[in-house]
């Protein structure tokens, strides 16, 4: 039996170091690395069964060419040489006839490290094709809002929670998405540190907190403005810190905060006046308060303002200036690796950009030239994108050449012309930088690629060579590229010897006080950048008129959240995890279920003007009346019918053009009543 230290590649902030045990070429055990302090010797429930994914009988074994209608899933095996030759020939023809911008590479990090994710982007950069905007379907809004407030810089080191005296998980279910931070937090709570959870749902984290505030969806900005109002009213501001490190507070106070007294905040948020007052007093009294920001509050029309308002609070009390205080969204901004060697090799980079969320729109409406070819890797947009029905119609076009690279036959792959078998992270080497902690590591392959699987990295190199690209990165070994990431780096990684990442996990530490990389060099309560874009320049809560109109028509608001055993469709290959997570479900408050005569365990349809989907009903008071919760993102085949994103439109958030999943309104009825 051999043991190999590897790195979990799932789209999770923790970036866990793992130990893989292999016997006779087969993975038999996967566990947390006991020598890595943050992983602390355990792996979450989503990961410790990944050997099932590697050795799944459902793995794609060979390249496939479509023989039936798009969407039918009818394919025939072909060789790798035949597949690559056909792709290269078709791409060259399209480029000759319509130019390179008629091709779009649609790649994501979902279960890959930086080598496998980024070289695919580099391939399309070098070809001069249409490109994806920065960000993803999940984080575009929250990252933009953070950057408009603090600049492109990481937040508080989560391991500094040992110095915190109050922790607020704001819209963040730690037990679902950040289990190692949760484990560390549980240790410090034994010393008296309080945990407050602000979440519309009584999540598992909320149920174990010292205090849960079930805020109304979409009102986080109002609560944050209300807290700021009380802090100023009660003399709890750190005036020296505000004067030295912020921009625009006095204007914010006069023009915005005056409009958010506790009574109004309570009316907006659904909380009591006493709760609003108590929370503000608790926050004002803390010296090193840490807010763990969640992305969920930003997945709606005014989501950017929500995160800006919450991210401003630590500046008002001076918490950003104290070890263990401040806020944490992402760590990646402070680790300025030079990934351009992968993503921007020499070549005619196109300026034509496509939003991740707007793939259906781009395929149907983009002209001069229209998109004629699509390459999808490590992504399943036919499930994860909003307005899935529109996207699937576009993918069904006979004129579109679609290539999908994935370990499994996904809902998206069924619409492909050519499907290529991909490796999992346990079958390929890669470099990893955590986005939820200040850690990095190189992970080798634990086992050889299964069947005929090929990694994203090596596929990008193979296609580049067939397309005549000669940049050195398309012929280099992965390990030889890693030192390039550190050349020219500044800040906290500048003095790191690249050789260390091959030996095991490397921890770097940000400054104990939060730094700001905005145009002013301060936390910008007032943002000139936003003002120039026509966006409200100061954090504020305002009712969204489109949401108000939809709420008047449909009685329930959609809430989506990560599952505890399946965060997204990459986990569908594990029968154990599918069983633990249960069938795709909709969770409804008992009052709402009783109104509709619906019983727990029944098949129900969720519907609005965009369509309907079928799910299993769970009746629980973990959600509020007026809300329907759908946890996880699951493939069509697991549900009664369809996927919930069929009900979401392509509206964009106020910042970053992110997804507005939580701005969806609908109703629920018995499945038998479906037309």
What does this structure look like?
By secondary structure, the chain is an alpha/beta fold. Helices cover 30% and strands 18% of the residues. The protein contains 23 helices and 27 strands. The strands form 7 sheets. Strands 5-4-17-16-15-6 form a 6-stranded mixed β-sheet, with helices on one face. A 6-stranded mixed beta barrel has the order 22-26-23-25-24-27. A 5-stranded parallel β-sheet has the order 10-9-8-12-13. Helix 3 (114-127) runs parallel beside helix 18 (456-466). The mean pLDDT is 92.
Distance between the termini: 57 Å
Radius of gyration: 24 Å
CATH topology annotation of the largest domain: Rossmann fold
The residue ranges in which pLDDT falls below 50 over 5 or more consecutive positions are none
Number of helices: 23
* CATH C-level category of the largest domain: Alpha Beta
Coarse shape = globular
Task: Please tally the β strands and state the result.
Answer: 27
Q: How many domains make up the coordinates?
A: 4
The largest sheet is: 6 strands, mixed
Q: Summarize the amount of helix as a percent range.
A: 25-40%
Task: Work out the oligomeric state of the chains in this entry.
Answer: single chain
CATH architecture of the largest domain: 3-Layer(aba) Sandwich
Outline of the structure:
This protein is of the alpha/beta class and 675 residues long.
List keywords for this structure.
six-stranded mixed β-sheet; six-stranded mixed barrel; Dimethylsulfoxide Reductase, domain 2; 675 residues; Rossmann fold; 18% strand; alpha/beta; 23 helices; globular; Phosphorylase Kinase, domain 1; 27 strands
